[in-house]
Design brief:
Helix content: 40-55%
Strand content: 5-15%
Structural class: mainly alpha
Strand order of the largest sheet: 1-4
Shape: globular
Distance between the termini: 14 Å
Number of strands: 6
Radius of gyration: 23 Å
Number of helices: 21
Low-confidence stretches: 1-32
Order of helices and strands: HHHHHHHHHHHHHEHHEEHEHHHHEEH
Length: about 500
């Protein structure tokens, strides 16, 4: 891992960016790291500012690389692989040795661990004897910080770690940084890392048992009580109690602990069905002609808040995007056999196949010999909806409720129960029920789950990890669609990124 001294300077930079903007009187403070750090944690507000800074900086990796662009390109959602001039060509072809891939990997690693360092500094000050944090705030800030530390490590594990199994769990992969020590931490085995992630998530869940989301809902608006702050509101944009538990289900499934994953999912589903904290998004909201909710935002358990989301859409998804930058589905017409959509959506009535999600476009590109054009299917999930409330206009989903139903379906040994969980998702996407057949096998159930999962998480960076967890060697193609061929081979080594140079250089003797 990059030296902790360097990360300490990143902490200072983070504090400067996110705190000085509202604390101009600090500008006269001596800029030594320790003094600046102590100044930040002199008040309860400082703890909140430090944690908010981490949430804000999640956008550095998760607003693009780990959601709608790089990881989804590597899952072959988009028509990229055969275009050698495309901005994301190296990712579509898993060219780990290319300088641009190496640079992206270095940046991803550095940002993740710098955020982990920020969290560890925050946690150290929370646990100090003379901590200034208020007693009522402590479980929330500490619980969210522990949950975020696990969240960040888990995605590093999913990227750089092996395909997890009893045969690979002892392979050395990444460090688990859990203190504010300046010492370089050892690389740990996959099993050790996953054990620490589970520990942190369980501790976080215990601290967050009193999360107001469990009684008041997501509270996606300012309080109408002038005497109440918004510190514990907007819970979809925080790693709330349900998000921690959902992440725990995701983690258990990653290590093959289906029993515990199913137990967590059943608890989440039961509590949500009773309280409707994350209700299924209504048809009215999905097909709304002026501000369609294409994120199914009411179902999002945890997401980013990104006011620049429209810039990402304009850069990669809008019909004015150039051919070599565009992240589009292959095809000229929505329902042609040469289009990707019919291979994704077997139900024509599926909301996710609706025309407000997709459009037939012709993209343009200036070349040395003139203009080039390319018919394409453009994806509108992240289009700006000016009439939408801020509760989802700037949202990028990271964990959603439908994933919990699909995890439960995968982990259940009862095929009838599995089909019921899958149909719960399908019913709320306007699809017909799947009928259990006497010939159905575990593989058949998995195919049903795979089909639903890939439709649910387009633009959210989760399909690549799904394929990796299952060590899938044949995946749906982004470029080949015909009755003869619509999948492509996936080599298992493409699921494990090499440790970045910024890390390996620190460990040279």
């Amino acid at each position: 891992m990059q030296t902790i001294n360097y990360i300490k300077h990143l902490i200072s930079a983070c504090i400067l960016v996110f705190v000085f903007a509202s604390c101009n009187d600090w500008l006269a403070v001596d800029m030594e790291d320790g003094m600046l750090e102590d100044k930040l944690f002199e008040s309860n507000e400082g703890f909140q500012s430090a944690l908010n800074g981490v949430y804000n900086r999640l956008n550095e990796n998760y607003a693009s690389t780990l959601t709608m662009t790089v990881l989804d390109v590597m899952a072959q959602y988009y028509d990229v692989r055969q275009n050698s001039d495309h901005l994301f060509h190296v990712y579509a072809n898993y060219e780990f040795s290319e300088p641009s891939f190496k640079n992206a990997s270095d940046n991803l690693w550095m940002r993740q661990y710098s955020q982990i360092a920020n969290l560890n500094t925050l946690l150290a000050h929370i646990d100090s004897k003379d901590s200034a944090i208020k007693e009522t705030y402590c479980p929330f800030i500490k619980g969210e910080a522990l949950g975020l530390r696990a969240f960040l490590h888990f995605d590093l594990m999913r990227i750089y770690g092996p395909i997890y199994s009893v045969d690979t769990e002892n392979e050395i992969c990444i460090p688990y940084q859990e203190t504010d020590s300046k010492e370089i931490q050892p690389l740990l085995s996959a099993k050790e890392v996953m054990g620490k992630i589970i520990r942190d998530l369980n501790d976080a869940a215990d601290l967050l048992k009193g999360d107001p989301i469990r009684t008041e809902g997501v509270m996606a608006e300012d309080s109408k009580d002038l005497n109440e702050t918004n510190d514990f509101r907007y819970r979809q944009y925080r790693l709330n109690y349900y998000a921690v538990r959902a992440l725990l289900a995701r983690v258990y499934l990653w290590i093959g602990d289906r029993g515990n994953a199913l137990l967590v999912c059943k608890e989440l589903i039961a509590e949500n069905e009773e309280k409707l904290i994350f209700p299924w998004t209504s048809r009215t909201d999905i097909v709304n002609s002026t501000s369609p909710d294409l994120l199914f935002s009411t179902e999002v358990i945890f997401g980013l808040y990104n006011i620049s989301r429209v810039n990402l859409f304009n850069s990669y998804f809008k019909n004015t995007t150039t051919i070599n930058n565009a992240l589009v589905f292959k095809g000229e017409r929505l329902n042609d056999a040469s289009s990707k959509l019919p291979y994704y959506f077997s139900d024509e009535t599926d909301y996710r196949r609706g025309t407000n999600f997709w459009s037939e476009e012709t993209l343009e590109q200036m070349t040395s010999t003139g203009n080039a054009s390319q018919p394409s299917i453009c994806f509108h999930k992240y289009a700006d909806v000016s009439g939408a409330t801020e509760s989802y206009r700037y949202m990028i989903p990271l964990i959603r409720m439908s994933e919990i139903y699909l995890i439960a379906a995968e982990c259940s040994d009862d095929f009838t129960e599995s089909i019921a969980y899958i149909n719960k998702v399908r019913n709320n996407r306007n699809c017909v029920n799947i009928e259990l057949q006497s010939s159905d096998t575990e593989e058949t159930i998995r195919q049903y789950i795979t089909s639903e999962f890939m439709r649910e998480v387009i633009g959210e960076g989760q399909l690549y990890f799904y394929y990796k967890r299952l060590a899938m060697e044949e995946i749906l193609s982004g470029t080949e669609f015909s009755e003869e061929r619509w999948t492509e081979s996936m080599y298992l080594q493409y699921y494990e990124w090499p440790l970045p140079k910024i890390e390996t250089d620190q460990r040279v003797n």
